[in-house]
Each structure stands twice: as C-alpha cells, then as structure tokens.
C-alpha cells in the first residue's frame, strides 16, 4: 500500500540525535503546523556519475533553522514523515557563530515546536520565524529579537498581552516595552539586564494566564 504523500515548505526547529540510519527533526509548516520528519543519513555517499546540481540540491542534509521545501511520505497516517526530497530555501549558518545568538534562536525554535499553533495563526507564526531568524542572522541583538518574538507569538495565538499584561507595568517599563516592540533593531539601546527583566515579567504572565508552554 503506497504511503501518504505531502509537499510543504517548513522551518527546521529541532534536530535530535540520529538513531540507526535516520536523523529525526521537528519542522514547522505554514499549512500543517509542527511535523516530525525522518531523513535517511547519507554519510560519505559518493556523488552519482552525471548527477546535476539540481539533483544534489534535492538531497541536501537538513540542519537546524533551515527553511526547506520538502517532499514527504508517511506510512502511519501522518504521525511521522519520511523525507523523499529536501530542497534548501534558506540557511542561516552564521547563527552558530555566537553563543548568545544560538541560545536565543534555539529558545525561539523550541517555543514554536512545543506549542500547538492554531490553524488560523500559522501564517503569522511562519512570518514571525522567518523574520526572527533573518534578524538574528543579520546581527540583531538576540535578547531583543527573542523578547519581540515571544510577545508577538503570544499575541498571534490570541492572548491579550497588549490589553492585560502591558497596562499592569509601571510607566517606565511600558515606555521600554513600547520601544523594544516598535523601534528598529539597529536603533535599540536597552541595557541587557533591562531586557532580561522585562522578558522575565512577560514569561511570568504567560505562565500564569495562558496555556503557552515555556519550558
């Protein structure tokens, strides 16, 4: 019986230790949300005689934070998917060059992976992930990118962070949050300890008043 086919574009959010002949990932798709996929390992596989660059691109090994176009197949009704083809759309290799950038990028990816995203929010979350990864790759401050992303994720999931969390802050904190959310990254000058404190305040609110899983 043929497997169930699926074609989708997605972001690689989690990369697990390989088992047997397969590497396991969690990816996020605008159309389908989070998917568990398996890609066959191809260590030291020789280049096939006459293989074109296009053919090689379809078999690219996936890596964390990649944006990829996937041809998938499932034999268990979509619980897991096997990669038939993987074409790279964007790769942010520079994110691993800084510990802080990698830490916040990984935290954002894990946040998206562990929380089921409502169907009506998936387009906004897809844009959020693409924008955040691009900002981090361009050298944007990772603590501010994460704060903005966390706020926007909660908002896009329908939680009243603007109506409930923001008004309860002190005047100075409201001004700082407004700057963090609305000003371009290049012009941000907030002290790291201030950003960390406001991120903690937001996380405390989300734990107490939402179903968002932060840990």
What keywords describe this structure?
single chain, 215 residues, alpha+beta, OB fold (Dihydrolipoamide Acetyltransferase, E2P), 2 domains, five-stranded mixed β-barrel, 5 strands, 40% helix, 21% strand, globular
What this model shows, in words?
- The chain has 215 residues and is α+β, with helices and mostly antiparallel strands.
- It has two domains: 4-91, OB fold (Dihydrolipoamide Acetyltransferase, E2P) (Beta Barrel), CATH 2.40.50.140; 95-209, no CATH class.
- Helix content is 40%, strand content 21%.
- A five-stranded mixed beta barrel has the order 1-2-3-5-4.
- Helix 2 runs antiparallel to helix 3 (122-137), helix 3 (122-137) packs antiparallel against helix 4 (142-156) and helix 4 (142-156) runs parallel beside helix 7 (192-209).
- The longest helix has 18 residues, at 192-209.
- The N and C termini lie far apart (40 Å).
- Residues 44-57 have low confidence and may be disordered.
